[in-house]
Amino acid sequence: MKSSATSSGKPSGSDGSETRAGGTRGQSRLRRRPQLSEEVAAHLRHLIMTADFRPGEFIRLDDTAERLDVSVTPVREALLTLRGEGMVSLEPHRGYMVSELDRIDVDDLFWLQGEIAIKLALRTAEVITTEQLDELAWCNQKLRVAVTAGDSTAVTDAEFEFHRQHNLIAAGKKLAWFLLSATRYTPTQLYASDPEWGAVAVDSHDKLIAAYRAGDRDEVIVQTRRQFTDGAARLVNHLEQTGIWD
């Protein structure tokens, strides 16, 4: 999921309100690491994509740093990154404000991810071996166990591993990088905590593996696209429920 149909980081948040992705925004803590600003950016990106930070809301440097138990510097760097992505804007004398997020943006993000993933899947179909198929089946079994157990962290890790192995077989390093860049806008934990999404992911992986074994390229395309179509529909439904488009 980190580099698949649903991927980003493992975020958390900012004021005291409850998030649908799990936990409260005020309870989040991040570790101090050289890549800390990237972690903060992933964290804030998740909150924006799930409307826990709503369009028009200001993200305060000091408040965010305190809630994440980090200094102001990585928060400022993260917000500069998000400004470059168009997710926030800098309002003079006021600070960073969350930008609008519309349905077209969501649809476009998942369309882009799906098209790249299909290209990688068709390359995989040309070269995948029986041993590699067995490895993918094992990865999907780990995902199945995690979904059944309701362990969202294990679900995230297993989904990521499945697609990492898959994309290594395709040997498209640049395409895989572009896919990873696109999926960082996907709120990973929103999906990982949804058992219905997990069931779809496991079933789609099973059918994708079967399509590879049968040499059925049409079904490879169908099952690859299925995860992105499902992911887009779930995120749109979630955002509709938050009322940001009312």
Gist?
Residues 1-35 are annotated as: Disordered. The chain has ten helices and three strands; from the N terminus they run αβααββααααααα.
What order do the helices and strands come in, and which of them pair?
Elements: H1 36-49, E1 58-59, H2 61-68, H3 72-84, E2 88-91, E3 95-98, H4 103-127, H5 130-149, H6 152-170, H7 173-183, H8 188-192, H9 195-214, H10 217-242
Organism: Gordonia desulfuricans
Region (Disordered): 1-35
GO molecular function, one term: DNA-binding transcription factor activity
* Average pLDDT rating: 88
Strand order of the largest sheet: 1-3-2
Gyration radius, to the nearest Å? Answer: 18 Å
Overall domain count: 2
What's the total number of strands?
Answer: 3
Largest β sheet strand count, sense and barrel closure: 3 strands, antiparallel
In CATH, the topology of the largest domain is named Four Helix Bundle (Hemerythrin (Met), subunit A)
| Envelope shape | elongated
Query: What is the string of helix and strand elements?
Result: HEHHEEHHHHHHH
Q: How far is the N terminus from the C terminus?
A: 30 Å
CATH architecture of the largest domain: Up-down Bundle
- The SS-based structural class is mainly alpha
Helix content: 55-70%
At the fourth level of CATH, the homologous superfamily of the largest domain is GntR ligand-binding domain-like
User: How many distinct helices?
Assistant: 10
Can you tell me the residue ranges where pLDDT is under 50 for at least 5 consecutive residues? 1-24
CATH class descriptor name of the largest domain? Mainly Alpha
Which assembly state applies to the chains in this document?
single chain
What percent strand?
under 5%
